[in-house]
Structures are given as structure tokens and as C-alpha cells.
Design goal:
The complex is a heterodimer of chains A (123) and B (107). Chain A is built from no helices and eleven strands. By secondary structure, chain A is mainly beta. In chain A, the strands form two sheets. In chain A, strands 2, 4, 5, 6, 9, 10 and 11 form a seven-stranded mixed beta sheet that branches. In chain A, strands 1-3-8-7 form a four-stranded antiparallel beta sheet, with no helix packed on it. In chain A, β7 and β8 form a beta hairpin. By secondary structure, chain B is mainly beta. In chain B, strands 1, 3, 4, 7, 8 and 9 form a six-stranded mixed beta sheet that branches. A three-stranded antiparallel beta sheet of chain B has the order 2-6-5, with no helix packed on it. Chain B has no helices and nine strands. The chains are: A mainly beta (123), B mainly beta (107).
Chain lengths: 123, 107
């Protein structure tokens, strides 16, 4: 079964750090371009960033609101995607989804989504 | 930064056709995809590359993209189609962009 399972969410104080994980199964993770998308409570979807497959260069790109604070990485030996979040702000409070791009291109659509993990930034 | 604009809400009667629009500058030059999200659930891809349906998506869902507007059309709308719908595209300066979402009510 094709599946993405996120973990690592929780409550963190402003300025703190958190690392999210996303375990993939049922497809060739090493070939996939993976993204993180978040959704603040009652709000719409917001792209966080993406990482290419290593064979395509392994470059990570980020949305402006998180650039310099968040880092996306991957461990293909563990079929796992990571999101390291530093200098967290209250506006980072959201459900964080990991998702796969269908065609491994920049203008891609996301066909597999995890169930999401909640991150709450509050004092 | 690039923006996609959707109407906050659309209402449709069961069995009728619902049209949800997504507007952006020169959107016709970009691929647009659409997601359906029901309360408490993760988004589901219902259309990609403007007008292609993923496996398992009913034929009543169709898409188009012309000028500055992309449209997701649901023919013969059913109660199960009630959900939030988001369009998405990619811009070379901004990256992946989502529209603000449209709440489809079937009443």
C-alpha cells in the first residue's frame, strides 16, 4: 500500500525547534520529489518546501516565510523525509503534511498525502 | 509574488453542474491542478495538468485552463462532493502556489 506517515508534531515555545519525520512505503522513495505542505487551523493550504531526488540533484527549495529557518532533508536508506524547523513563530502553527510529486518536476501535482501532524507554537 | 484567486464559496443543487474558478496572471501558461479536502481529512488530487483525472476520480470531474482562469467543473454534483477545493500552480519566482480555497456546498 502506498503510504506516507508523518510524526514528530507537538507543542513548542516560540523560538524553539522541532523535527518532523515522514515515513514512506509502497513506492520507490529514492526517485520521488517530496514536499511539505502546511495548513493553519481553519485556513488554506500553504507550500513549505520541496526536495528533489538525489539523482536529480537533491536540491531543496523553500517558501519565503520559512526560508532560512526550515530545512528539508531525506534519508533514502530509511525511506524517510524530514523537516527541521528552527526559530519557530506562532504563525507556524499548522498541520504539516508530507506529499509526493507525481512526475518529479518543478511544476508538479501532489498525488500522495500523509495524514498530517499538528505543530503548535505557543508560550 | 504570484497569487491564485478562488471564490470563497460556491453553492449547487444536487444533480446540477458546479464550476469553481481559479484566477492568476497568465495562468494559461502554467499547469493547474486541483485538490478536494473534506473536513478532518487530507487533500486528495482530483485534477492535474489542467484537465487530467487521476485514477479513481469520477468522470463527473473535469478541468480547463484558458486565459487567466482555470475551472474545475463537477457535472451531476452529488452530496459526497461537498468539500473544500484548492487550485495549485507553480511559479518560477514564488514556487508552488495554492489558491485560497473554495467551499462547495451541495444543497
Amino acid at each position: 500500500e502506498v503510504q506516507l506517515v508523518e510524526s514528530g508534531g507537538g507543542l513548542v515555545k516560540p523560538g524553539g525547534s522541532l523535527r518532523l519525520s515522514c515515513a514512506a512505503s509502497g513506492f520507490t522513495f529514492s526517485n520521488a520529489w517530496m514536499s511539505w505542505v502546511r495548513q493553519a487551523p481553519g485556513k488554506g493550504l500553504e507550500w513549505v518546501g520541496r526536495i528533489e531526488s538525489k539523482t536529480d540533484g537533491g536540491t531543496a527549495d523553500y517558501a519565503a516565510p520559512v526560508k532560512g529557518r526550515f530545512t528539508i532533508s531525506r534519508d533514502d536508506s530509511k525511506n524517510t523525509l524530514y523537516l527541521q524547523m528552527n526559530s519557530l513563530k506562532t504563525e507556524d502553527t499548522a498541520v504539516y503534511y508530507c506529499t509526493r510529486g507525481i512526475f518529479a518536476v518543478v511544476n508538479d501535482a501532489f498525488d500522495i498525502w500523509g495524514q498530517g501532524t499538528m505543530v503548535t507554537v505557543s508560550s | 509574488s504570484y497569487e491564485l484567486t478562488q471564490p470563497p464559496s460556491v453553492s449547487v443543487s444536487p444533480g446540477q453542474t458546479a464550476s469553481i474558478t481559479c484566477s492568476g496572471d497568465k495562468l494559461r501558461d502554467k499547469y493547474v491542478c486541483w485538490y478536494q479536502q473534506k473536513p478532518g481529512q487530507s487533500p486528495v488530487l482530483v485534477m492535474y495538468q489542467d484537465d487530467k483525472r487521476p485514477s479513481g476520480i469520477p468522470e463527473r470531474f473535469s478541468g480547463s485552463n484558458s486565459g487567466d482562469t482555470a475551472t474545475l467543473t463537477i457535472s451531476g454534483t452529488q452530496a459526497m462532493d461537498e468539500a473544500d477545493y484548492y487550485c495549485q500552480a507553480w511559479d518560477s519566482s514564488t514556487g508552488v502556489v495554492f489558491g485560497g480555497g473554495t467551499k462547495l456546498t451541495v444543497l
